[in-house]
Amino acid sequence: MLRRFTVSAIAATLATVLLGCGPAPGDPGASAAEGTGPVLTISAIPDQDPDKLQRLYATVSDHLSAELGVEVRYVPVTDYAASVTAFRRGDLQLVFFGGLTGVQARAQVPGAVPIAQRDIDAEFRSVFVARVDGDLKPVQDVAGLRSLTGHSFTFGSESSTSGRLMPQYFLGEAGVTLDDLNGQAGFSGSHDATAKLVEAGTYDAGALNAAVWDARVREGTVDTTKVREIFRTPTYHDYHWVARPDVDERFGPGFTERLREVLLALDGDDEQQRQILELFQAERFISTEAANYERIETVARSAGLLR
Predict the structure, then answer these.
(1) Higher confidence at residue 32 or residue 265?
(2) Lowest mean pLDDT segment, chosen from 3-17, 76-90, 272-286
(3) pLDDT of residue 48
(4) Are residues 170 and 96 in the same domain?
(5) Domain shared by 147 and 276, yes or no
């Protein structure tokens, strides 16, 4: 009886020690310890309503998991900078970055690879919007943005390509500096918030992602009797998927290329694919390369947003 108790006690103690040495629940390595293999963690810059992003990336995770044969987990981040930090630390292996955050991420993670962008990202635009009851009218070219002088203005996130970097660049092309605005420029944090702040009259004008603006106008979630588009910028490259350089080491040789192929194969052939493309506001994904973002890098360096 005493011997059975001793053996049981030793076994229980040993089990406790072994469990204590394993990964904590929820750790990316936990599934590997449980025999299901490593988890591919994905994310995106939080440029829109969090509920919409959760729906989109939950669907993307399911599709990638089924196509690649690995567990895929979407991990939301608090802001743009957090997406770059988590990618640098290796907490995220695949991220849908904006142009600027993608450049920042690759600068901090040498060997990180841009693998795909939406068709609309090859010729992306920002829109400048203004209060309908104000004195700002639609303009025909970049030079017309001089009319924003003396008005209050909000960007989106400080690290947003379409909501801050390129709008500020085009303002500069028109000869407008941030000092020429009425008070300090705002930073709303997201494209949706920018539209709503101008709609509410908090700012005279603002700039945001053209695709988000177009979608909100179609949906009727912005009041176009209160806020309107006054200028649509020239085109530039923007959003793109970036994979860490150690993805093949974690998931097997050729995994990065498999990721690219799965994204490029999205064609709306079934309901899940149609839903993904609709939520991404795209018809398909196309290949991309680092050279496409050299202009973004140059503008970012001149603005002090890239070291």
Answers:
(1) 265
(2) 3-17
(3) 86
(4) no
(5) no
